[in-house]
């Protein structure tokens, strides 16, 4: 009896737009192919901005602020690629199965991307303000190269 009720609940909510049992009627206009294209395109654009743009802009800042070597910073950058490689095969398999709910898989991926972006931005909010040392007069700064040239 319980299994029949779960199947009927599943079939009622299967085609509706929403999250699990939260399927408000006011959002059902988004349950169209045009809106799916808009949502998937915006997720893809945001992923491109985060991975190809912001990530590489933040690397020099992260190196200076946390005194990381280039090797350590490259490990942070490559963590995305390694994670993608590890998750690619199971997700591809699950998405290719008959009866797989691909929009749901894409939605979970978008949530995971957003969570990863928030985790990546946490050091900027957790740590205190960055105070850099500013050299005002480069000619009087101690440098081993200046001493060798003048000697």
UniProtKB/TrEMBL annotation:
GO molecular function per UniProt: sodium-independent organic anion transmembrane transporter activity
Which domain of life does the UniProt lineage start with?
Eukaryota
Q: Where is the Major facilitator superfamily (MFS) profile domain?
A: 36-151
Pfam families named among the record's database cross-references: OATP (PF03137)
Query: Topology versus the membrane, per the UniProt entry?
Result: Multi-pass membrane protein
Q: List keywords of the entry alphabetically.
A: Disulfide bond, Membrane, Transmembrane, Transmembrane helix
Return the SUPFAM superfamilies for the record: MFS general substrate transporter
**InterPro entries, alphabetized:** MFS_dom, MFS_trans_sf, OATP
Q: Which biological process terms from the Gene Ontology are attached to this UniProt entry? A: sodium-independent organic anion transport
Its annotated compartments are:
Membrane
Q: What is this protein called?
A: Major facilitator superfamily (MFS) profile domain-containing protein
């Amino acid at each position: 009896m319980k299994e029949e009720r779960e199947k009927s609940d599943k079939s009622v909510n299967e085609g509706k737009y929403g999250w699990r049992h939260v399927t408000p009627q006011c959002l059902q206009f988004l349950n169209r192919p045009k809106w799916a294209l808009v949502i998937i395109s915006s997720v893809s654009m945001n992923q491109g901005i985060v991975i190809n743009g912001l990530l590489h802009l933040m690397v020099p800042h992260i190196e200076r602020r946390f005194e990381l070597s280039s090797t350590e910073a490259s490990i942070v950058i490559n963590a995305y690629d390694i994670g993608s490689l590890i998750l690619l095969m199971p997700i591809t398999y699950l998405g290719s199965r008959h009866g797989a709910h691909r929009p749901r898989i894409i939605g979970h991926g978008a949530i995971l991307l957003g969570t990863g972006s928030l985790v990546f931005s946490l050091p900027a909010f957790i740590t205190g303000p960055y105070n850099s040392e500013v050299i005002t007069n480069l000619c009087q700064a101690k440098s081993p190269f200046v001493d060798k040239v003048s000697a």
